[in-house]
Request: fold
Amino acid sequence: MGVLMQAFYWDCPRVANQEFKWWKHVKEKIPQLKNSGITALWLPPACKAQDVISMGYDPSDFYDLGEFQQKHHDGKETWYGSKDDLLSLIRTAHNEDMQVLADLVFNHCSGGELEENPHTGDKWYTKFSPKSGKFERDYDSFHPSVYESYDGSTFGGYSKTDLCHRNPLIYKEILDYCKWLIEEIGFDGFRYDCVKGYGGWMTKSIQEMRYKVSNDFSEYYKPFGVGELWDDNDQTIEYWLNEINNFSDNPVSAFDFPLRSKLRKLCLDKEYDLRDLAYWNNTLLDRPYNAVTFVENHDTCWPHPDVSDKEIFADKMLAYSFILTHPGYPCVFWQDYFNFDLAQSENNSGIDALISAHEKYAGGDADVLYADSGLYIMQRRGFNDKKGLVYVLNKNEGRWAGKCVKTQWENCSFKPVAWRGNNDSNSPQDAKTYNFWGEFWAPSRGYAVYAVE
Reply:
């Protein structure tokens, strides 16, 4: 399925000294990312927000990608740059056969003018007259309206500008907007923000719409989609996936928050029992074609103002070793890769070595071969040109750990292609199986990935 890169983090233009130049900054990194094995980029919300200095999660003019002069804005660009900068980034990614995902925020709006709502008698900022001239909104565009009093949930302080998708005009406007993002701007798919806030039927409509991206009118394009349903209860996410994907010809995926919760414990809790990782039915790994696995995102990591109980601040490579060897569509976080220097292209102990292992060897179904409180061993069976691998995770401190396990390979040689240990850079030894059995080891509080030769 490839490897996705979340190409931003909270306040990234300011932190990286790239204000109004972030699109250019990402574009410059595309050759490096392509060379490392990244196959897709997830970009932050690209449209004009209420505030000039904004991550984009307070959308105001959906069709302004940095080309119109908005009220209260000093210039035309978004915090990330101009529309031309964005289009150039997308073209460059496509030239490298990389997909680009748009962060789709349509649960709420911000930045309207004050008007009276005759349904409630109150006044609120619900009058939107965008400078782009598209997607105008008024009080009937939000809750409560004649179409609906409320939907799933509200987001932060945007309860009075919570879009009413049952309004036929709003429904059509959102579909038209998504069509424009795919067909004219060039995005290849969507990350759906805050999917708890609206009905699953809205996401299903976007996924199933018939997009045209070429002059071949015999085929329609099906965009990739992944939803952000922030919940550690795997059943909640499963219900959402089932609701949308039932009888759908273009199923949507979801971020595996339950797995991420386990991985945070793996990294931070020295008493964590690795047998807990073997219970995939508590995550989305038991339906890998719908799972986008991740370690960190813009909401869980510094400098987001509320990360005290979310961030993984130690031993993060243990988590990356897990998602880049197991089933699912793994997502790497830009800040980890670049700012926190976890790429480490020059050795076998960074994210790049794991991406390489994922792209070359991590194919087919997965089997847990052994798990106890401190040791976990898994095999990927291989598929097509990916021969498979064996993954060893060792939680124990101060000593290497391994086990003789029964694999699917009768007599086979293995070479270590990625590894990392706590204060131990020694390479694991090559391994062999005899009559399906072989010993596989990993360094102290670390991991090892063995590839089938």
Remarks:
- The longest helix spans residues 168-185.
- The radius of gyration is 23 Å.
- The first strand starts at residue 4 and ends at 6.
